[in-house]
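Consider this record:
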Amino acid sequence: MSAFKRKRGRAHADKNAKKVKVVADGGEAPGEAEQEEKSEVTIPPPVSMGKWTNKERVLIFSSRGINFRTRHLMQDLRTMMPHSKADTKMDRKDKLFVINEVCEMKNCNKCLFFEAKKKQDLYMWISNSPHGPSAKFLVQNIHTLAELKMTGNCLKGSRPLVSFDPKFDSEPHYALLKELLTQTFSTPRYHPKSQPFVDHVFTFTIVDNRIWFRNYQIMEEDASLVEIGPRFVLNLIKIFQGSFGGPTLYENPGFQSPNMHRRQIRLAAAARVREKQMVKEMQNMKRTEEKEDLARDVTADVFLTPADEKPVHIQTEAPEPKVAKKNKHKAFKRQRMAHR
């Protein structure tokens, strides 16, 4: 059976091959038979003869108010994903449910929508239009192809390998995100704009409860990986059952909004300033305090030891009278020496 298929495929390839006649300039014209044999060149058929069955199309666009970094990131994603389509920026006043109608008009069944807020926070929606599910992420640490000075390179339009961390199979919401990311970022086989080569890989890694995206080139020599770019980090906020809304399937308990994060930074800075001011006030108070003039030195009696206390003697009897002594005349020392 396999030999029959091989023979049939070879005949099919020969059928699609083209024959072109080439006429050499100069010299005598050879005969017609020899000219036909020598001047016919066979052009091989296309490399991929399969049928394009997976009609996945991804719509990549954003809201108004994005900065230059987000614009370059969107362009890099469109370059890496040949099955993507672009659209004009959506007005901020429009509801997100309008995106489902835009996807229907563009004949897309997946959507990557970048939503900018306060000109500094970037959110990314990944949705399966129009029935869902959809996931909302906070995009952090964006580095584009033009910004990164990486040595990796790959063929434009080539199909990537999509690699996932083993943690994606540990919890249900990660398994749902794995399927959604696989269908969005993988290029369909035999897509008209794709190339039949596999020379780079998309990696999704879970570190610190965030999804880290990297793009690597697969080297031909030793199959080592060299980063190409872009790179960004996705912090999951919520997973919805519908497309851009609906019941909440999962909510990240450890997510902290950028507004709350900036508020905590401001409060910490204000506390440090307040502490410095209190220290300065205490120092000024110590300097301005009136110094008391001490008339007596309190440290003068430090080394004085108290005398032993004697018991108090109470005299109950009258003292005896003193006897008066008679004064005897004593000779001088010279006279005494003379008598001797």
Summary: Residues 1-15, 22-29 have pLDDT under 50 and may be disordered. The radius of gyration is 48 Å.
